[in-house]
């Protein structure tokens, strides 16, 4: 009862300050609802309908998009590829980037600052530019990789993007290449905030470098590992740009991802209801990963109250 | 002698290994740059060799073929105005979250965090529909509005995090002197928050500059294409007929962000860290 009164009073206080809570709040809320909130809800509704995108007829068909989807082998290919893409990205973000961050901050390595900037550089490239660059490097017969293979004595170089068995993995490695700077930046910021005294204390207690890693570095970086995992997962789940630029999902459907599959179904095939259902699968997957993180961040940022 | 005393075998091995990895890592970039400085014939003759004679032919051709000036101008418009509007829109909500406690604040805040994590694919179809109905499909204004709406949550989160940790004595003093809430915001809070706002703007700017799926879905004429769509022209085939032109296109597309990154990477790093960990 008291809580309800307090809440009402807080809201009344907010609304009374019209100089702050007039346009300044209404406009963001309106834009947010129009361009973010409503579209997501409408996608959910569309996933129960069929619609060609042109006609005014949006017919409600219940769950049939989903039953069709779960019987569509192309969907399972795209889903499997998206999961592989996520696992590969997590390897780059949680293993490779971490090892690099620790190595570049350790006293064992010279040119640490220079190398760090080198690994950050792909961040300045859009995925379209990255895809374009690797496409011509990997071009059969004339590309750089082919030339290197021939110089090493192979008659023919590899056609990494043209082979169903390698196309997806090639895209994943290229994605890892372009993405690695972000987790590296996060680990680096985290590492510089660990107090040196903790390592000194551990050393005094006779901890080996590996033990210091396990007992000091890992626990101190735990929040960053969590953030990196969530961000990398979400980035991987929405994989689209590289697929469109480098393989268009091919050969066949070998490098289809959910994002690309959804885009083709919606904007090429004009099966908007079906595409919406794919989006919802994507939404469910990414929410599953982000929910734990979001609850924690929300609590931290607003100090538990509210 | 003393300068060399610190050099040990493990250090040399570790540094050597990382330099080798770094060289392989950077090689595609390096190759792209040297390719862009050669003629097509010399690329076919010796793809990996350094240019025997540096030429900027590929740059001028690419610039003209893609109408790169227009592409860059469009990208700057989208990134600057999109991130700018997002920042302006973020100010009042961030101030509210950081200064007032009210029922539902946490729920709304979490909703914003959720949006920040949402795959853009999820909203693509209704946005396409909404833009069509508003007559904003294939217009700069339409894309700018969408970028502003999707950039706003991140900027609200960053700014709220910053404001929540700011001392409030100055604001209280201004309030006692009879300043209105809006004057306090304008003359006390915002000037102090300028660095945080700059970081939010920058992150958002970079994100929009690299953005692809909104642009390729909502735009379909060359006059309004940003760089990311413009350079797609060279990706129509896996079998490239020219290497020098796409190489030059890639290099030009990267220059603005490289400059921005070199000037601001400390800020950007801090911003990414704050946006992710807070």
Description of the molecule:
By secondary structure, chain A is mainly α. Helices cover 74% and strands 1% of the residues of chain A. Chain A contains 15 helices and 2 strands. A two-stranded antiparallel sheet of chain A has the order 1-2. In chain A, a hairpin with an 8-residue loop joins strand 1 and strand 2. In chain A, helix 9 packs across helix 13 (241-247), helix 11 (196-204) crosses helix 12 (209-237) and helix 14 packs across helix 15 (272-301). The longest helix of chain A is centred in the first third of the chain and has 33 residues, at 73-105. Chain A starts with a helix and ends in a 5-residue tail after the last helix. The relative contact order of chain A is 0.12. The mean pLDDT of chain A is 86. Chain B has 278 residues and is mainly α. Chain B contains 12 helices and no strands. Chain B has helices spanning 9-36, 40-45, 57-66, 68-99, 105-117, 124-134, 140-164, 169-176, 181-210, 213-218, 227-230, 244-277. In chain B, helix 1 (9-36) packs across helix 12 (244-277), helix 4 (68-99) runs antiparallel to helix 9 (181-210) and helix 9 packs antiparallel against helix 12 (244-277). Chain B starts with 8 loop residues before the first helix and ends with a helix. At the A-B interface, helix 1, helix 2, helix 3, helix 5 and helix 6 of A face helix 1, helix 4, helix 5, helix 6 and helix 7 of B.
Regions of chain B with pLDDT < 50 over 5+ consecutive residues? none
The neighbouring-strand order within the major sheet of chain A is 1-2
Mean pLDDT reading of chain A: 86
Low-confidence stretches of chain A: none
Considering residues with a beta carbon less than 8 A from a beta carbon on another chain, report the largest interface and each chain's count. A-B, 115 and 105 residues
Rg of chain B, Cα atoms, Å: 24 Å
Number of strands of chain B: 0
**Radius of gyration of chain A using CA atoms only:** 25 Å
Average pLDDT of chain B: 86
Shape of chain A: flat
């Amino acid at each position: 009862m008291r809580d309800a009164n307090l809440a009402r009073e807080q809201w009344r206080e907010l609304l009374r300050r019209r100089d702050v809570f007039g346009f300044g709040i209404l406009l963001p809320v309106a834009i947010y609802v129009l361009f973010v909130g409503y579209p997501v809800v409408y996608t959910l509704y569309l996933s129960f309908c069929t619609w060609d995108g042109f006609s005014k007829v949006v017919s409600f068909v219940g769950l049939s998009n989903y039953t069709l989807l779960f019987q569509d082998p192309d969907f399972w290919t795209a889903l499997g590829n998206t999961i592989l893409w996520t696992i590969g990205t997590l390897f780059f973000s949680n293993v490779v980037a971490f090892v690099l961050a620790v190595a570049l901050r350790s006293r064992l390595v010279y040119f640490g600052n220079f190398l760090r900037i080198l690994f950050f550089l792909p961040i300045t490239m859009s995925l379209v530019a990255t895809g374009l660059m690797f496409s011509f490097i990997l071009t059969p017969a004339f590309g750089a990789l082919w030339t290197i293979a021939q110089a090493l004595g192979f008659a023919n170089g590899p056609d990494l993007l043209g082979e169903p068995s390698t196309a997806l993995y090639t895209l994943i490695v290229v994605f890892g290449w372009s993405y690695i700077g972000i987790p590296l930046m996060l680990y680096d910021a985290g590492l510089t905030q660990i107090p040196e005294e903790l390592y000194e204390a551990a050393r005094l207690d006779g901890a080996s470098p590996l033990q210091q890693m396990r007992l000091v570095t890992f626990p101190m970086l735990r929040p960053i590992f969590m953030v990196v995992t969530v961000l990398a997962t979400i980035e991987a789940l929405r994989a689209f740009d590289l697929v469109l630029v480098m393989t268009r999902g091919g050969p066949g459907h070998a490098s289809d991802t959910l994002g690309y599959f959804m885009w083709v179904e919606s904007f090429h095939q004009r099966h908007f209801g079906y595409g919406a259902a794919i989006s919802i699968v994507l939404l469910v997957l990414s929410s599953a990963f982000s929910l734990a993180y979001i609850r924690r961040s929300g609590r931290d940022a607003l100090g538990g109250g509210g | 002698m003393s300068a060399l005393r610190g050099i040990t075998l493990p250090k040399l091995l570790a540094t050597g290994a990382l330099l080798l990895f770094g060289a392989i890592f950077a090689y595609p970039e390096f190759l792209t740059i040297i390719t862009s400085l050669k003629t097509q014939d010399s690329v076919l003759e010796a793809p990996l060799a350094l240019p025997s004679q540096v030429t900027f032919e590929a740059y001028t051709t690419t610039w003209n073929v893609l109408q790169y000036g227009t592409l860059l101008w469009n990208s700057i418009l989208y990134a600057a105005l999109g991130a700018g509007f997002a920042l302006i829109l973020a100010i009042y909500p961030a101030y509210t979250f950081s200064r007032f406690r009210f029922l539902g604040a946490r729920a709304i805040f979490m909703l914003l965090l959720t949006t920040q994590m949402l795959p853009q694919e999820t909203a693509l179809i209704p946005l396409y529909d909404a833009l069509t109905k508003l007559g904003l499909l294939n217009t700069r204004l339409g894309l700018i509005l969408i970028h502003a709406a999707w950039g706003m949550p991140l900027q609200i989160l960053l700014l709220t995090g910053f404001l929540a940790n700011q001392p409030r004595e100055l604001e209280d003093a201004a309030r006692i002197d009879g300043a209105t809430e809006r004057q306090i915001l304008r003359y006390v809070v915002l000037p102090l928050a300028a660095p945080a706002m700059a970081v939010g703007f920058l992150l958002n700017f970079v994100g929009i500059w690299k953005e692809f799926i909104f642009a390729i879905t909502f735009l379909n004429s060359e006059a309004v294409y940003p760089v990311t769509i413009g350079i797609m022209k060279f990706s129509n085939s896996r079998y490239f007929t020219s290497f020098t032109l796409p190489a030059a296109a890639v290099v030009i597309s990267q220059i603005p962000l490289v400059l921005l990154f070199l000037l601001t990477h400390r800020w950007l790093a801090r911003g990414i860290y704050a946006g992710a960990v807070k």
